[in-house]
Amino acid sequence: MARTPSGDDVNAGVHAGLRVEVAKRADLLWETALELHAHPEHAFAEHRAAALLTGELEKAGFEVERGVAGMPTAFTAHSGQGRPAVALLLEYDALPGLGHACGHNLIAAAGLGAALALNAVLDTSTGRVTAVGTPAEEGGGGKVLEVEAGVFDDVDAALMFHPGVYNWKRAPLTAQVQYRVAFHGRAAHPTGNPTEGVDALLALLELFNVLTALGRRLPAASHMQGIVTDGGKATNIVPEYAEGLFGLRAATTDALEDLTGQLRTGAEGVAHATGTRTEVDRATVRYEHFRDSGLLSETFARHLSGAGIELTPPAPGVYLGSSDIGNVSTHVPAIHPFVAIMDDGSDHTPEFAAAAASPRARDVLVAVTSALACTAADVLCNADLREEARRLHRRAGR
């Protein structure tokens, strides 16, 4: 690390230096993104990806800790000490059957590149840069476990970007959780002694009917989608046990809690009406809704505009799924802008997987890496920006 900037020097010298350092590493970052793309790994099994990323960070002098929060493929890599501190989030899990159809190979490479550039430009006395390896975003919630383990307790901001089909300053990400609902009945022969049976499967199917009716009056962004995971063992046995898995989403975490209550109430009502017994248990960690740091997202957008990419607010009423970055955003000011690598279609498709290794993706990678590094430098070097971001974050949490 070279020197500690102050005042206007942050804008004049540091940002230019960071862009130079990112440009020097453009080939390395693209090779990293392509390597991850060529070898997709799923939730909590991203051993090759974690080794590749931590190896590059260690070569640059970062202090690496593996196995963070009890996850073998999670890590932190620190440069500098104490506060202020900024976290750059690296996602690197892939989708079963689709590979990097969510572009996590680009997220990892961008976070890596921003951390390396900051390490090359800023003095260690400026503060702490932490690259956080976050497994299992697509299912498992690595960031949730990291938040619970205190990884973000001494951090002033958490920064990442996500490739997409829109250029949006912030991510409209909902709260999400899955519940397992089971019904217990009594087995019988459907011909020999049908009146002795209590059909657990019929109870489960009735719950689907109840939820369909409920869905007609749910608020925007709220929905429940279920599948049958156990519907009985044979057609000549009245099912004594049936089970479904239900995914719940809502615009806010409070609305998700309301939805969870309605699921429980519906299951208990069906059980009472059918003479069955029900169990409703949470099957996954809960993803909180994303709370955007508007101040830091605007800062990122200004830096990215220098590369000719203009970000806009998201379209009203459009929601793009859920992510465990929501749990981080409840804890510290966070950004999660979307930057387009294709213009039509959607992520989680074969077309998006191809786009994540395209020439356009390379250009976006270099641009967003510079913008992330410059935003991180602003957080580290500008106390007024840090304090205002914290103040707005606290106010939004009330």
What can you see in these coordinates?
The longest helix has 23 residues, at 359-381. Helix 1 (9-24) packs antiparallel against helix 11 and helix 2 (26-38) runs antiparallel to helix 4 (104-121). The protein is elongated and about 85 Å long. Helix content is 41%, strand content 17%. The model is unreliable at 1-8 (pLDDT under 50). The chain has 398 residues and is α/β, with parallel strands linked by helices. It has a six-stranded mixed beta sheet, sandwiched between helices. A four-stranded antiparallel beta sheet has the order 8-9-7-10, covered by helices on one side. It has a two-stranded parallel ribbon with strand order 6-12. Helix 4 (104-121) links the parallel strand 3 (85-91) and strand 4 (128-134). It contains twelve helices and twelve strands.
Strand order across the largest sheet: 1-2-4-3-5-11
Helical percent range? Answer: 40-55%
Report strand %: 15-25%
Poorly predicted runs: 1-8
Backbone shape: elongated
If you compute it from the alpha carbons, what radius of gyration comes out, rounded to the nearest whole angstrom?
A: 24 Å
Number of strands: 12
For the biggest sheet, the summary is:
6 strands, mixed
Number of helices: 12
Please give the alpha-carbon distance between the first and last residues.
Answer: 39 Å
- Mean pLDDT across the residues is 95
Order of helices and strands: HHHEEEHEHEEEHEEHEHHEEHHH
The SS-based structural class is alpha/beta
Topology:
Elements: H1 9-24, H2 26-38, H3 47-59, E1 63-66, E2 75-79, E3 85-91, H4 104-121, E4 128-134, H5 142-148, E5 157-159, E6 162-164, E7 175-184, H6 200-215, E8 223-230, E9 241-250, H7 253-274, E10 277-282, H8 294-305, H9 325-329, E11 334-335, E12 338-340, H10 350-355, H11 359-381, H12 383-396
Parallel strand pairs: 3-4, 3-5, 5-11, 6-12
Antiparallel strand pairs: 1-2, 2-4, 7-9, 7-10, 8-9
Helix pairs in contact: 1-4, 1-11, 2-4, 4-11, 6-7, 8-11
